[in-house]
Design brief:
This protein is about 30% helix and about 35% strand. Helix 1 crosses helix 2. The chain has two domains: about 40 residues, N-terminal domain of TfIIb (Single Sheet); about 100 residues, K homology (KH) domain (GMP Synthetase, Chain A, domain 3), CATH 3.30.300. It is an alpha+beta fold and about 140 residues long. It is built from three helices and six strands.
Length: about 140
Amino acid sequence: MATTIVKLIEGMQFLGRSTSGHAVLMDSSEKVGGNDSAARPVEVMLCALGGCTGMDVISILRKMKTEPDDLRVEIKDTRAPDYPTVFTDIHIVYRVRGNIPEANLKKAIELSLTKYCPISNSLAKVANVTSEYVIERD
């Protein structure tokens, strides 16, 4: 079993260290005792989702020998109004630049969201996760 350690630094600032040894800094806003010095934990979670599915999509497209010139993953979320303010809807927009066959991009996104990305698959158990893509041709 892998172990991640998250340690209080000061105020509301925490440093997480993953099993790979890399660190993630998190903080809260000043109004709840933080210094606003880093991303909030929920923001880190959404960034992790974007990184996870983005890495899948790039990896799959490279295997298809159709690597894009650029990929940007935009995530829009809606949360419940009451605590614990869980995600209710998550919409992912994949913005790809380059001469990418639409069928390849669609397949890569589908594989990521339904098979490979553990973060999107975990979140899909509690929120409605949807996606779309935009191809910007050269």
